[in-house]
Amino acid sequence: MKIGVIDAELLFHKSHRFPNLACMKIAGYWKAHGHDVKLLDSYEEVHGCGQVYISKVFTDTAIPEEVLRLPNVRHGGTGFFYDKAPKLPEEIEHHMPDYALYEVWLEAWKAAGEKKVKYQFYRDYSIGFLTRGCFRGCPFCVNKDSRTALPASPLSEFLSTERKKICLLDDNFLACKDWERLLDELAEVQKPVQFRQGLDLRMMTRRQMIKLFRECKLDGNVIFAFDDIRDKDIIERKLRLLYETVPIKKKELKLYVLCGFDRNNQWDRSFWVQDLYETLERIRFLMKYGCLPYIMRFEKYRESEYRGMYITISRWCNQPAQFSKKSLREFCESEGENSSSCRYLHAFEKEYSEFAPYFDMQWEDENKMG
Question: Distance (Å, rounded) from C-alpha 276 to C-alpha 332?
Fold first, then answer.
């Protein structure tokens, strides 16, 4: 049978930096059972397949409704069902991903002159979950109904000897009681490891835990999360513990900064202004500790009258080369006085002049540690 696999983000955005793990597992399973599996590059191709699987991660990824109604089409993923997404069948969930699924697509981009680094996760990384679940119950998270973190898959289940790095998608790795054993396994493999979803800095309770992490070959930035301004004190204590325990360079630590989510479900003007203040205050705090903020916008921000400010702050922070050299004001002005960034900034500052110090804060001026 001819099996079609559709990575919906790939068709919606045309160019996407991260592969869909479910698609690769589905492809691996059906290929192992002797079927002809192809990554489809258009929805028109679904009619020529005996069975088609569509997966999407993000809720705003659009898919033609008539395609989803076809009898040979199955669909799934958090982009469709968010926290209620059905699990893959066990035999697919625990199958080796087909890392060759994207090869034809990658060759087309290579021929078009795209830089190889843009698609490094398609080529260089073994991708999977060592643990699943989290106990935090954060209301914005797809794991909000989860109550614990448990071992999910052995490393051998998704580790490719041909790939030089490992990318873990674990929800809260440190919340799993087996974290130390799993770290030992990662250290033994001697491949650089990236915790893509970030680690829970609040769980870094002991110096020995930190030292064990440093024994692993960590890949690039060490990523944590700073989702709530109310966690500022504990985040500060843990950052100090990190700096006191192991040598850490400036910009080595990156923290996801969630914004645009109202825990009180009000979504009014006062919330948006307060949220922008808390976002900028967390950025200032992370500057102090030599950390890079990475802005994560909850989808509701699109409904804010200050949507432009969220976009501008994200563009500034999420480009480290710009963030570490320019204030937010300088970043906007570098795009021209008539740019949308400048218009958003000037309009907001005219209404809320008390925000001006945040617009002028500089990385080197604020940084005191690292």
Answer: 17
